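User: Okay, second chain of the day. Same drill as before: sequence in, C-alpha cells out.
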Amino acid sequence: MKYSNFGEFISAKRHSLNHKRIYIANKLELSATYVRDMEMGNRPAPNSELLLRLLANLNIDKDTDEYFEALDFAAETREDIPLDIKDFIRANSETFYPLFRKMAAGENCSKEISELMNLNQEL
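Assistant: Same drill. C-alpha cells below.
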C-alpha cells in the first residue's frame, strides 16, 4: 500500500499490528492525543530519537524501503532532510559542506562530483 504522508503511514502501520493509540503512546511515554495529532497531520513527526523509537515500536526494520519511506515522510512534516541523509552528510562534512557551498554559489563542481562518484564506486 502506498501512503501519502507520515500520519497516514504510521496510522496504517499501527493498525496492521492491531495496536491502539494508547499502546504506542505508552511505549513512547507520550499522550494518545500526541499520537493522534501525528496521525492526523496536526503535529510534525517527532525528533530523531523519538522517531526511531516510534519506528521500532511499529516493527519497521532499518535498511528496508519502508524504513526509508518513513524517514522521508517524517522529514517532509518537519520541512527537513531525512535523518539518514543528514547523518551521512554530517559524518562526511569535510567533503560535503564545501561542495554544497560551491553548488549554492553556482560554481562548477563537476570535478568534485566526479571524485565523489569514483569514491562511491570504490566502496
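The chain has two domains: 6-83, 92-122.

User: Thanks, on to the next one.
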